[in-house]
Amino acid sequence: MSHDVNVHGTAIVIGTTGLIFMGPSGSGKTAAALHCMGRARERGLFSALVADDQVLLRVAGAAIVARAPAAIAGLAEVRGSGIVSVETVPCAILARVIRPIPPPFAERIAPEAEDCEILPGQRLPVTRLPIGDGFDFFDRLTLILPFLVWK
């Protein structure tokens, strides 16, 4: 695929790992992503926004690369407050889809080896991230994904 596809989500980088938070509007994608970025920085890890709300995806070799549309680069929407400037990187190779799941949690355990077709013929593993129950999103993410190297 040689052209960009615009998808609804929020893409970030923690360390060298690119993550895209995807889900319906109002599901907590931006809030969870910004929270994870802030907590990662508190732990001395690099973190930055790639794009919020609209993410341009492109296949490059075996990788899926995310970047922001020029009009919204460096900006994130804090629901109920407005648009804020956020430290960004121009692009990132995505490793995983993070799907924020607000309570009530319909399933006790997520399907094993869940993935999604993020672009035609291109799949990424999915991690469900329960949110909104008072638990630290980044702590929960590191519990769920201990194998990710947060360098």
Explain what you see.
By secondary structure, the protein is mainly beta. It contains 2 helices and 9 strands, in the order ββαβββββββα. It has helices at residues 29-42, 137-144, and strands at residues 5-14, 17-21, 47-60, 63-67, 75-78, 82-85, 91-101, 115-119, 122-130. The chain has a 5-stranded mixed barrel. A two-stranded antiparallel sheet has the order 5-6. β5 and β6 form a beta hairpin. The radius of gyration is 14 Å and the shape is globular.
Mean pLDDT: 90
How far apart are the first and last residues' alpha carbons, in Å? 30 Å
Largest sheet: 5 strands, mixed, barrel
Low-confidence stretches: none
Can you describe this structure in just a few lines?
This protein has 151 residues and is mainly beta.
Map the helices and strands.
Elements: E1 5-14, E2 17-21, H1 29-42, E3 47-60, E4 63-67, E5 75-78, E6 82-85, E7 91-101, E8 115-119, E9 122-130, H2 137-144
Parallel strand pairs: 2-7, 7-9
Antiparallel strand pairs: 1-2, 1-3, 3-4, 4-7, 5-6, 8-9
Helix pairs in contact: 1-2
Task: Jot down its keywords.
globular; 2 helices; 9 strands; 15% helix; five-stranded mixed β-barrel; 151 residues
